[in-house]
């Protein structure tokens, strides 16, 4: 999906738009396969968990080639010749567990090649971690933005070369920390058609390996973003997201913000007490319509 005239087309770090802070080196994978079941780091509510079958799909764990070896991930797509529009599914902080896998199958059921790479596979084994605060401290904060951005690029390329994905119809969707990633990836990827950010923080601390926030890049996004947020989210002020939207708009960019007044953080996460079916279903319908309206469908 790179420009053939670009002399750096084979360099996965050449187009990271200021997010790369030298020295940046790859490291070995701690996780070499995905976890089974739901994350151990949060209380599940089994009665409400959505389970999407794989009938009519090709779905399962995959290995995605990267510069330093195979990265575990999950891929779901329709059976058939394709090519299929691609959605890069960006996980929460808890890893590619049953909820993220199910999201991939939901997307595949409506015609997408959905790929969820395990973006924290080098930093820690999320399948064994039970404390969200430790996950943030020991894994999330130690994962360079440039690393996961390059890994998403690798997943997009693999979707085209090995999964009958359509390079011309590329979108992304992310939840929580993955929602933050949607903002940053939209500022990186010039051929991205659309992004859907579910309650992703737009602020936060800047560090050497995570140098920019969603607010910082709001004026630089290459693709329109649908921003789905909860008005009762105690960690992400609506005013901050509105400011990011307004910054994007002032630069001629498009951010469609939808705020569900009574919804908390994680309102789409059907395995957690934060789940709000009405808001989750409305957001999902909006997300699918948004992708199609912007050429990912």
Question: How does this structure look, described?
Answer:
The protein has 297 residues and is of the alpha/beta class. The chain has one domain: Rossmann fold, CATH 3.40.50.1820. It is built from seven helices and eight strands, in the order βββαβααβαβαβαβα. It has helices spanning 98-109, 132-138, 145-162, 177-188, 214-217, 238-250, 277-293; strands at 57-66, 69-78, 84-90, 113-117, 165-175, 194-198, 225-230, 255-260. The chain has an eight-stranded mixed sheet with strand order 1-2-4-3-5-6-7-8, with helices on both faces. Helix 1 links the parallel strand 3 and strand 4. Mean pLDDT is 91; it is low at 1-24.
- Measured as a percent range, the helix fraction is 25-40%
H/E element string? EEEHEHHEHEHEHEH
Q: By helix and strand content, what is the structural category?
A: alpha/beta
At CATH level 2, the architecture is 3-Layer(aba) Sandwich
What spatial order of strands do you see in the largest sheet? 1-2-4-3-5-6-7-8
The radius of gyration over CA amounts to 18 Å
Distance between the termini: 18 Å
Largest sheet report: 8 strands, mixed
**CATH fold-type name:** Rossmann fold
Q: What does the oligomeric state look like here?
A: single chain
Shape: globular
How many structural domains can be distinguished in the coordinates?
1
What's the CATH superfamily, by name?
Answer: Alpha/Beta hydrolase fold, catalytic domain
Low-confidence spans:
1-24
CATH class: Alpha Beta
Kindly state the number of beta strands.
8
Amount of beta strand: 15-25%
The average pLDDT is 91
Compute the number of helices. 7
